[in-house]
Amino acid sequence: MRVNLRKLTLIVGVILFLWLLISYSSVIEVPRSISRKPVAAQIENKIIKLQKQMADQMADSNLLLEKVKKQLKKPNVLNEDTFEGGEDDLEAQPVKSTAALVLPVLVIACDRVTVKRCLDNLVKFRPNKDTFPIIVSQDCGHNATYHVIKAFTDMDPTIKMVQQPDLKEITLPRAKVKFRGYYKIARHFKFALNHVFETLGHEAVIIVEDDLDISPDFFEYFLGTYPLLLKDPSLWCISAWNDNGKKEVIDMSRPELLHRTDFFPGLGWLLRRETWFRLAPKWPAAFFDDWLRNPDNIDGKSCIRPEVSRTYSFGKVGVSKGLFFDIHLRNIQLNYDYVEFTKLNLTYLLKENYDADLASTIYTLPEMTADEVMMNVGTHKSVKVMYGSAKSYQRAAKKMGLMDDFRSGVPRTAYRGIVSCFVRGRRVYLAPDFTWTRYDPAWG
Ligand code: UD1
Ligand code: MN
Fold first, then answer.
1. Atom of ligand 1 nearest to the CA of 189
2. Is 79 part of any domain?
3. Contact 146/116 with Cβ under 8 angstroms?
4. 120, CA 20 to 30 Å: which among 2, 41, 251, 431?
């Protein structure tokens, strides 16, 4: 007990001493605050030094990042630089790596809940979510359609939705009121493409309307043909659609066959950023697709289109109503044979090859009339049918079951005035009987 008391006294003594020490130190705080300035200055200097070191490090890291990016791009042929070696590169280096490539799919939607059918197929056939993120742009503020799309975005973070914000009615003179839908479509496309290229900063985009089905090789088609768009400055788009895609006028045994065309097909098409930035400032208020069919607006450039369509429109209910659907769209044949486009040599589609081939083919082919073609006269596997005027073109086209209309003087699917089709088991070229130099806007 005694010992404990002594210990207690000792502890109390120590506490007392410590208390005195703390009290004393608080008393001498005043002189310490005087010396704070130089210490603060020192710390400030240190921070500045550290900041500088960090900035230097950031600069180094950015440099390194740029180098890595460049290296990553190198083995990927879907990069413009790698095509500089010439067209043989397209053949020698089919798409080996798509790791760095992002080709978003832009789905244009409005007020049709059947956008589900379109999205289901995109999701089903999409080979890679990172290469092909899906962006659904919705116009029209239609609630039920919004919820259909939201079910997809909720399920998958690589599917995003954006709303076209300007829903005000477009005021039009009475004569144009019936075309209001086409004004809204053009407004929506402008917003959606700006969103993809300006806001999201993508390099290219595949545009799909909400009433399109796609073929199983739809994505492979665009992957395989995208290098052509990068390589050939005379091309401005790749389309999945053949305007003359009915089974009676195509060669179903050639699903791998592609063509050049001066007639913008739309309906599932690939557009590059730089092209959009050229089109955007002059984008029309309505009928954007026909506007894109005027050679003046696309600098006389062409598109690639397939022999067998990679899209099918199921949009009977739509802005252009059902008649066009019943007599035409309904019968377009969708491709079901999977073609590995990324493994094919597509250099025959480059302008210098294609134009020379086409010219010599046409020159050497035997000539027939459309009637003879339909009556299956002779045994030639390829023939030409010549036309000299809009009228004679339309007569021959109609006879063979082709679309016979023009936009800005360009016949559907025409390339340099020539329409290639496949009728009664043979390839037929509908070709001008005069030296073609340009389309005549007075035709049609
Ligand atoms: C037709 C073309 C279509 C083109 C359009 C533009 C065919 C088969 N279709 O449209 O490729 O883009 O002309 O002139 O040749 N939409 C809106 N806002 C609206 C109304 C529609 O964004 O207010 C969207 C639809 O969701 C759809 C697209 O615009 O994605 C086309 O509309 P649709 O009703 O299908 O009209 P089409 O007559 O097919
Ligand atoms: Mn449609």
1. 22
2. no
3. no
4. 251
The number of the ligand 1 atom at minimal distance from the alpha carbon of 138 is 22
Residue nearest to atom 23 of ligand 1 (CA): 184
In this structure, are 192 and 325 located in the same domain?
yes
Dihedral angle, C-alpha 343, 126, 322, 188, nearest 10 °: -110
Q: Is 209 in the pocket of ligand 1 (CB under 6 A)?
A: yes
The reply to whether 118 and 238 lie within a common domain is yes
Q: How many residues does the chain have?
A: 444
Q: Is 140 in the pocket of ligand 1 (CB under 6 A)?
A: yes
Output 284 or 76, whichever has higher pLDDT: 284
Q: Give the predicted TM-score (pTM) of the model.
A: 0.81
Same-domain status, 186 and 315: yes
* Distance separating alpha carbons of residues 61 and 307, to the nearest angstrom: 49
Q: What are the tokens at 195?
A: 């969103």
**What would the pLDDT profile of 299-316 be if each residue is shown by its tens digit?**
999 999 999 999 999 998
Residues 313 and 329: their CA atoms lie apart, in Å, by: 6
The residue contributing the CA closest to ligand 1 atom 27 is 209
Confidence of residue 319 (pLDDT cuts 50, 70, 90): confident
Among the listed residues 89, 111, 289, 290, the single catalytic one is: 289
289 catalytic? Reply is yes
Averaged pLDDT for residues 58-65: 48
* Distance from the alpha carbon of residue 275 to the mean position of ligand 2, in angstroms: 24
266 C-beta closer than 6 A to ligand 1: yes
Domain that holds residue 425: 365-432
Residue 229 alpha carbon to ligand 1 centre in Å:
25
Q: Who contacts 8 (Cβ-Cβ below 8 Å, separation ≥6)?
A: none
Q: Do 340 and 299 belong to one domain?
A: yes
Report the C-alpha gap between 347 and 151 in whole angstroms: 42
Ligand 1, atom 18, lies closest to the CA of 185
Q: Are residues 209 and 142 in the same domain?
A: yes
398: domain CATH number is 3.10.180.20
Ligand nearest to C-alpha 286: 1
